Amino acid sequence: MLPALAGLFVLFCAETGRPDDHLDVTYAEHQRLAADSLLLDVAAVPGHGYVAVGERGHVVLSADGTSWTQADVVPTRSTLTTIAHNEGRLWAGGHDSVILTSGDYGRTWTQQFFDPDRQQPIMDLYFSDAQRGLAIGAYGLALYTTDGGRNWQDGLINEEEWHNNALLDLGDGRLMVAGEAGFTYRSSDGGETWETIEMPYPGSMFGIVQGSGEGCVVVFGLRGNVQETCDFGDTWTELTTGTEASIAGAVLDEGVNVFVGSSGLVMTRDDGGPFEVQYHSSGVD
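^ that's the sequence the OP posted. Answer follows.
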């Protein structure tokens, strides 16, 4: 099905939200069970283990993925939803439009952006290098930086202010964003301009991941809905998953897509084939 392409939107800039606009910084509390609290994203940092982020500003570190310790200094108690890294530097974002950065692999952090009046949580972060980055989130949030996050500027991905839920870098300046209300967005110039793609399914998509098939991309979301494109969004195929559980996250590992979702859903797909669905014992309705 050929998607309806709407509007070419161009980045507009207005410097905003410098960290010194908010001088009263509240630090995350050190808690013995921080690693057992709600954690929402994790990054594998080559040569330096793992860094995970979550509620109440918790950041936890691990060398082996088994034993975890809490970061020393985290200047927020806002829930952190996402983490990204590039060229030895980490960034984390979350509720209250907070953005933090770390230059020591997650042990200590500084605040780069904080604007709770927006009421726009950050849902995903992407850096093409140590200087150029993009933060996306609720109600159309799009923030750009060209100086490693010292300054952030408002940008535009969609005019309707639909949620921008997740971003995928496909290389060569190609980016895709999964959103709500049946819309996905694509850019061929590193995020400077965007096209809107109307999806076959009109509901929200929570994530986007490289598919197990050659050159394919998979978006996933509400009620077990999964859509796949192998031509950068020109055409889409609705995939049969065999579940109505909402799908919240996915990875591609050694040619196999692994999806997780509500009710303990764990689902795999190998080399573009059918889905295998099972449910973890921790799942609840």
